[in-house]
Amino acid sequence: MFHIKNSRTRFGVMSQVARRLPLFLLLFLLLLAVGCETDNPQNTFAPSGDVADKLRDLYLIVMWPLIGIMVVVEGLLVLSLIIFRQKRGQAVPRQTHGNTRLEVAWTIAPALFLFVLAIPTITTLRDLATVPDGDVMEIEVTGRQFSWSFRYPNEEITTTNQLTIPINQTVNVTTTGVDVIHSFWVPKLAGKADAVPGRSNAMWFNATEPGTYSGQCAEFCGVGHWEMTFTVVAMTQSDFDNWLRDQQAGNPNSNTSDLTWHPEE
Amino acid sequence: MASAIPEQRPVSIGEALRGLRHEAATYKGILSWIATVDHKRIGVMYGITAFIFFLIGGLEAMVIRIQLAQPNQSVVDPQQYNQIFTMHGTTMIFLVVMPMSAAFFNLMVPLMIGARDVAFPRLNAFSYWVFLLGALFLNFGWITGDIPDSGWFGYAPLSVQSLGHGMDFWMLGLQILGISSMAGGFNFIVTILNMRAPGMSLFRMPVFIWMTLVTSFLIILAMPVITIALFELGFDRFFAANFFNPENGGDPLLWQHLFWLFGHPEVYILILPAMGIVSEILPTFARKPLFGYPFVVFSGILIGFIGWGVWAHHMFTTGLGAPANAAFGVSTMIIAVPTGVKIFNWLGTLWGGSIHLATPLLFAVGMVAMFIIGGLSGVTHAVVPSDFQQQDTYYVVAHFHYVLFGGAIFGLFSGIYYWFSKFTGRMLSEGIGKVHFWLMLAGFNLTFFPHHMLGLLGMPRRIYSYPEGMGWDVYNMISTVGAFVIAASMLVFMFNFIRSIKRGRRASADPWDGRTLEWTIPSPPPPYNFATIPVVHARDEAWHRKYVEDDQGRIVRVPAGAEHDVESHEAAGAEGHHIHMPLPSIFPLIAAIGLPMIAFGLTYYQDTHGEWALPLIPAGVVVLLIGIFGWGLEPEAE
Predict the structure, then answer these.
(1) How distant is the Cα of B163 from the closest Cα of chain A, in angstroms?
(2) Residues spanned by the domain of B362
(3) DSSP string, A202-247
């Protein structure tokens, strides 16, 4: 009798888990799909610059253990419902009030895990706060309702809604806002730097491959917020020199001539 | 009040009913609701109002989802879109989750601590009326066309520059709602500290009461912060002050610091009540005490403290600098520890229990399951550099919906299913309830899980539309379909609710074999709640009245006859003490009416033809004073 009951319960557990399995698999596939869609213009999982690369790697370092924790804890939750589901005529269970050792353990364990997470967090923050040594290209970024302007203080030119940079060149942007707060964001190259009126905010990044990178204002700034997009065009040093010469010669048409740049070229 | 009762003495029902008769004689019909000071009636009004706003906020969400279902749509125009998402966020936080929690505080706190009402019944009525009028004021723009449009956190200087009166309604509406919350916060702190039944020491209080206490302290400390921020915004808007104007020495970031110094404790104001509800429901349906009560209580208190030290994690990309970012990243990680402790203790409560899979339990477990996901995605935000990518994207939208919808709303629904019978005397249908639960769970995940992917694919929040080819199309479509499933689940819930009120199965006083005091009195409870104030001997008092250990250490029911239950309460003898019941009053409502009058005056008097509005300001003050004086001079009790 006992055996039959037990095996039925076990079978019940397995069938219930099996029924939920497709759901879990679906969620995982959806999540993995993000990594595969590399040609999406603002995919943070498909970086083309050293900073975005660091941010992606850091996110993955955190994401996988967290998914592991999620699966285990959610699994235990579902399992407890299945195993301890009330049976007909079941007596009142033992009135356990707790287990100090266990509770101390599950207080300390997450604390330790988070302590470990804090280490790459802080080291990466430090890396991002220090502009790498060597030649740095300065860009002054100004956000206004609803466009972006990029001033090259050393090259003495200004462009609108398109930032052109050479590849493998450290670029240091200094952002500010004119009217309200905006946020400068090119997901494939780096994180965000808010453009706050009356303040300046700095961030460095580079592009490791030639291409056109899509950027977008990330701080809600009014009725045209959704259209406040821009592009970063990264090209080889020699192409950039040509572009710069055209710009300084007052030939703004070349500003848009490379919009259809293909990374394969 | 406990000290007023030297010993437990039986009371005559006739005497107990005298207060009731008085109320019935003074006010009848609708007026008996308007003038009520009964915490149960106020709780019901809070709940119904909050649910109506839940439907309104939900309709706003549906418009957002329909607009975003496909690229390049224009179901609404960009300005309308901004207004709708602003009102969606503001409504859900200030007009749904907060007042729905307040509804549970009102309904449950006196019943769970063995009191006849809250400490200040008229202040309680005042809280409700101020909330209702503030909420209507906030939504007044739907009539005039001036709808708030700067986002629910109203970042300056956008909120200063916003044209029309939309942001005036938002700003003054939140000020009015703040008064309501403050009054409620003080009321529940005093109620919980002073009105517990004899024997109910702090560590015999149900966890829901603990969480109410922590939440109330958070409310009275956090609301003044947003009050100051809103006053500054008001000065900038009405009198061209320069708090947030950098050209004259102001700083836009000041708004963000103030707003989030309020805003993060606010997050815990929203979630702690739901955590308290779940901490009551899991033990009842696992038929086991809460695992590690002290750990759950102290982690709640700790969350209340650490919640004050994490606000800048909303501002990682504003350029605070690496040291500040690192500090706030670490403090955000620290707050994950007490949150994790609660989840593990809930698991420990279920483990080894005898789990009755009824609807309240399903919603409570749903809350835990969804909150785990929201909590873990919150940890990724604490990793500051990776937040540089996620900040202001749909990833954040996913996170806070998992916490506030998956956490708070699921928790509040579990409370509705759990305590419905206590106030209606009828049971919600279990079958329809289960349909509601599974639809809502599926719809919720369908709607919000894809938001993680959208964020990682670089979709910023608050954009009106997006072009093709961004890789966002499929996820947005899935999300919109999910939103319709949630909407369907709400129809199922409303059907269940209305049907059960009329035709639901009659509920006994204690249908779930509950563990706390509210289950020792009839459903629905009499106006005076407890004919005799109970004496508490243990945590889970109601359980200990029903069960004892036998010689072999097994838990068995107290033999019939010896049971100290509802019947024995009610059959108590004729001689008794006086039941102290507050009298109804319409003055709290009158006082409350003064506030929106002042706000209307302030909003309109500077308009080109706004002279008519100026007298509203002093008139509102006069009405407020009349209300307060009337309230003070009227006899408060029989």
Answers:
(1) 11
(2) 2-584
(3) EEEE--SS-EEEEEE--S--STTGGG-EEEEEEE-HHHHHHHHHHH
